[in-house]
Amino acid sequence: MDILEKIVIDKRKEVALRKELIPISQLEQSVLFEKQIVSLANNLRNSKSGIIAEHKRRSPSKSVINNSLNVQDVASGYENAGVCGMSVLTDGKYFGGSLDDLLTARASCNLPLLRKEFIIDEYQILEAKAYGADVILLIAAILSKGEIKQFSEFAKSLNLDVLLEVHNEEELHKSVMPSLDMLGVNNRNLKTFKVSLETSKSLSHSIPDDFVKVSESGISNFEAIKELQPYGFQGFLIGENFMKTDNPGESATQFIKELEL
Fold first, then answer.
1. What is the mean pLDDT of the segment spanning 236-255?
2. Cα separation of 105 and 102, whole Å?
3. What is the pLDDT of residue 190?
4. pLDDT in tens, 190-241
5. Based on C-alpha coordinates, what's the Rg of the chain?
6. Whose CA is closest to 215, among 6, 9, 52?
7. Residue 161: is its pLDDT beyond 90?
8. Model confidence pLDDT, tens digit, residues 40-77
9. What is the β-pairing status of strands 233-238 and 182-186?
10. Percentage of residues in the chain with pLDDT exceeding 70?
11. Cβ neighbours of residue 214 closer than 8 Å, sequence gap 6 or more
């Protein structure tokens, strides 16, 4: 069983428990539920850098990345750096994140916030909205075509942006539909954890131009972005690169300065 399958099994149990603890009506009464969203897709279309910077404490492939930073400092640091959006990992067991991280980030910046999560139920989309997210992530590898349609349309009904992540041609073909805003290519092979930018390059031609193209994983220097831009990529998700430093905001500032030289 690969790591993604393990995560999904645990996620189903976790979501079932959360549904029992917090009814949907309570989520819908959240102060943030009525908040106007900030569109990440629009930000990426109008940006030179296209950086989506991540808050990530640990990951199954790298174990601990950084446990010592608080989300507030990271979020305000990223905003000052001029990134396009912030991705917040909310999975606890494998990534050390939580919905409280999303709430703290929301209170600390005005950036579009992506809830980075393994979404397998509409309930998690309501949670994303209630905790201040502007964007949700859907992962094609764990969803059927019907689920991608159901979840993306539900997210759009809540005015959320939708980023769909694919790893290969097969996932891409089942996923292209009008209820998505952004198509992300994950350069990490989830079975081997190897990373290659060639994945983004080879899939770029199959992504219709109406979607904002986002490249994810393995982007550790500005040369990688320069390499991917000619393939039509406007968004670049950077997780570990900033988080493994003592000051992710400062690290993002330097990165964007170098990129814009």
1. 94
2. 5
3. 74
4. 777 789 999 999 999 999 999 999 999 999 999 999 999 999 999 999 988 9
5. 17
6. 52
7. yes
8. 999 999 998 999 999 999 888 777 787 778 999 999 99
9. unpaired
10. 100
11. 44, 52, 163, 182, 183, 184, 185, 233, 234, 235, 236, 237
What six digits make up the tokens of 107? Answer: 């209170």
Q: Find tokens 């073909």 and name the residue.
A: 173
Contacts of residue 42, defined as CB under 8 A and 6 or more positions apart, other chains included, come to none
Distance CA 175, CA 198 (A): 20
Structure confidence at residue 192 (pLDDT) = 76
3-class DSSP string for the chain: CCHHHHHHHHHHHHHHHHHHHCCHHHHHCCHHHHCCCCCHHHHHHCCCCCEEEEECCEECCCEECCCCCCHHHHHHHHHHHCCCEEEEECCCCCCCCCHHHHHHHHHHCCCCEEEECCCCCHHHHHHHHHCCCCEEEEEHHHCCHHHHHHHHHHHHHCCCEEEEEECCHHHHHHHCCCCCCEEEEECECCCCCCECCHHHHHHHCCCCCCCEEEEECCCCCHHHHHHHHHHCEEEEEECHHHHCCCCHHHHHHHHHHHHHC
Number of neighbours of residue 250 by Cβ within 10 angstroms:
14
Cβ-contact 163, 214 below 8 angstroms = yes
Six token digits for residue 76? 């305000």
